[in-house]
User: Which sequence fits this backbone?
C-alpha cells in the first residue's frame, strides 16, 4: 500500500458523515477527536491519581515532595519539547490533510525541531540540577524525570489529532501507561525507590512514542528534514507555544518554583493539591483541542461560523467550569483524604483556593483557542501570556518564601485571572470581542473574511 492512500482516505471519512447536536452539524472526525482526547486524558489522569494515592503514602510527604518537584521540572521540559506544535502542527496538518507530500515534509520538520529542542532541554536540565540542592542530591530521580519529560514531549499526538484519527494511538498510549502503573505497585516500596516511579513513566512514554512513530511512518513516511524546514517549523510553533502552554507555564512550573523556597514536605502538600486540581481542570482541555482543527478550517471560510461556535463553546465550558469549581471547593477534604491519605490535611486549603481555576481557564480557552488562534492573533495573545508569565514568576518569588503552598495557590489563581482578563481586553480593543456586537462587523483579520454564516460542517 502506498503512503498516499491512507492520507487521502482518512479525511474523506470525516467529510461523508456527521451528527447533529442542538441544530449544529458536527463532522464525525471532530467527534472522534473529542472522544479520543477525553479517553487519553481521563485514562492518563485516572492512572496518575491512582499512582499519586500510592506514592504519597509510600514515599511520605518529604519523599513525595521531592518526586513532585522533579516531575514539575520534567513537565516544564515536556512543554519545551512539545513546543507549540500541538496547535501549529495540528493546524497545518488539518489544512494539508489531502496532500501526502506536504504531510511528509511537515511531520519530518516538526520531529526534527523536537530533536533539537530535546538536546537544548537536556543542557538546561544540567544547569538547573547544579543550581538546586533538591535536584543535586537526587541525581537518579532527577534524570529519570528528564527522560520522562523529553519522551512525552516528543509524541506525535498532534499529527493524529490533525488528521482526526486518534482512536488507535490513544488505546496504545493507555496500554503502555497502564503497564507502568501496575509495575509501580510492584517495584516502588519505599522512599529509596522514588527513581523507579519516574523510570517506569519514562519507559511508558517512550513506548507510546514508538507506537505513534510507527503508525505515522505507515501513513506518510519520513524524510531527513532540511535545516530551513526545521527553522520554519520552530517559527510557526513560536506563535502558538505560549497559547498552547499558558496553563502549564502558570501551574506545572509552580511546584518547581516552590521547591526553591520551601521544605520538601511543604512542596509535597502543595503538589498534592496541584495534582488533584490539574486533574479536574484538565477535563476542559480535550474539548478545546479536539474542536481546534475544525474551527481552524472554518475560520478560513467564515467569521460568522467561527463566532457561532466560539459562543456555543463559551456557554458550555463556562457552565461546566463553574460546576467543577463548586464541586472542588466542597469536596476538597474528601479528595485529599481519598487521594493523598493521612498526614496531608495541609493540602486542603490550597486545593480550595485552586477551585477558582476551572471557570477562569474555561474562559481563557474559549478566547484563546476558539477565537484568537483561528483568527491568527497569536502575536497579541503571546503578549498577554508573556506579561502574565513574568507576573507569575515575580509573585512566586515574593510570596512563596513567606506563605508557602497557600501563597503559591493564590499566585496561580491571580495569574490565570489576569490572563483571561488580558485576552478579553485585547479583543475588546481590536473590536473583536466574541461576546459583544462588534465582533461580527469588524474588518477581516489577516485574511479571514467575514462572509455569510453557514452550518458548522464542511
Assistant:
Amino acid at each position: 500500500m502506498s503512503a498516499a492512500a491512507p492520507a487521502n482516505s482518512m479525511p474523506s471519512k470525516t467529510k461523508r458523515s456527521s451528527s447533529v447536536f442542538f441544530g449544529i452539524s458536527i463532522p464525525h472526525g471532530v467527534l472522534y477527536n473529542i472522544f479520543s482526547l477525553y479517553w487519553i486524558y481521563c485514562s492518563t489522569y485516572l492512572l496518575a491519581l491512582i499512582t499519586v494515592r500510592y506514592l504519597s503514602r509510600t514515599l511520605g510527604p518529604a519523599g513525595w515532595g521531592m518526586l513532585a518537584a522533579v516531575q514539575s521540572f520534567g513537565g516544564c521540559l515536556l512543554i519545551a519539547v512539545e513546543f507549540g506544535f500541538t496547535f501549529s502542527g495540528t493546524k497545518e496538518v488539518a489544512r494539508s490533510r489531502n496532500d501526502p507530500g506536504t504531510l511528509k515534509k511537515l511531520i519530518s520538520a516538526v520531529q526534527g525541531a523536537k530533536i533539537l529542542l530535546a538536546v537544548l532541554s537536556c543542557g538546561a536540565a544540567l544547569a538547573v540540577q547544579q543550581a538546586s540542592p533538591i535536584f543535586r542530591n537526587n541525581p537518579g530521580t532527577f534524570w529519570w524525570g528528564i527522560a520522562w519529560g523529553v519522551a512525552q514531549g516528543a509524541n506525535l499526538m498532534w499529527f493524529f489529532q490533525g488528521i482526526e484519527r486518534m482512536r488507535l494511538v490513544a488505546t496504545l498510549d493507555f496500554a503502555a501507561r497502564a503497564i507502568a502503573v501496575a509495575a509501580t505497585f510492584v517495584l516502588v516500596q519505599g522512599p529509596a525507590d522514588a527513581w523507579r516511579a519516574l523510570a517506569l513513566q519514562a519507559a511508558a512514554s517512550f513506548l507510546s512514542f514508538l507506537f505513534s512513530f510507527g503508525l505515522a511512518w505507515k501513513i506518510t513516511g519520513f524524510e531527513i528534514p532540511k535545516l530551513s524546514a526545521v527553522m520554519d517549523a520552530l517559527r510557526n510553533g513560536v506563535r502558538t507555544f505560549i497559547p498552547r502552554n499558558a496553563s502549564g507555564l502558570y501551574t506545572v512550573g509552580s511546584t518547581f518554583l516552590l521547591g526553591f523556597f520551601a521544605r520538601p514536605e511543604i512542596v509535597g502538600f502543595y503538589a498534592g493539591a496541584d495534582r488533584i486540581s490539574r486533574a479536574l481542570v484538565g477535563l476542559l482541555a480535550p474539548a478545546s483541542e479536539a474542536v481546534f482543527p475544525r474551527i481552524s478550517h472554518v475560520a478560513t471560510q467564515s467569521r460568522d461560523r467561527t463566532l457561532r461556535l466560539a459562543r456555543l463553546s463559551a456557554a458550555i465550558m463556562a457552565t461546566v467550569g463553574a460546576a467543577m469549581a463548586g464541586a472542588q471547593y466542597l469536596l476538597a477534604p474528601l479528595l485529599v483524604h481519598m487521594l493523598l491519605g493521612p498526614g496531608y490535611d495541609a493540602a486542603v486549603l490550597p486545593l480550595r483556593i485552586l477551585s477558582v481555576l476551572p471557570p477562569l481557564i474555561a474562559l481563557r480557552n474559549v478566547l484563546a483557542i476558539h477565537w484568537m488562534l483561528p483568527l491568527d492573533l497569536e502575536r497579541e495573545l503571546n503578549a498577554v501570556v508573556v506579561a502574565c508569565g513574568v507576573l507569575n514568576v515575580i509573585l512566586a518569588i515574593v510570596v512563596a518564601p513567606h506563605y508557602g503552598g497557600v501563597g503559591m495557590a493564590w499566585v496561580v489563581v491571580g495569574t490565570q485571572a489576569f490572563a483571561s482578563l488580558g485576552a478579553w481586553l485585547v479583543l475588546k480593543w481590536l473590536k473583536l470581542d466574541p461576546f459583544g456586537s462588534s465582533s461580527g462587523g469588524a474588518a477581516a483579520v489577516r485574511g479571514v473574511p467575514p462572509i455569510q454564516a453557514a452550518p458548522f460542517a464542511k
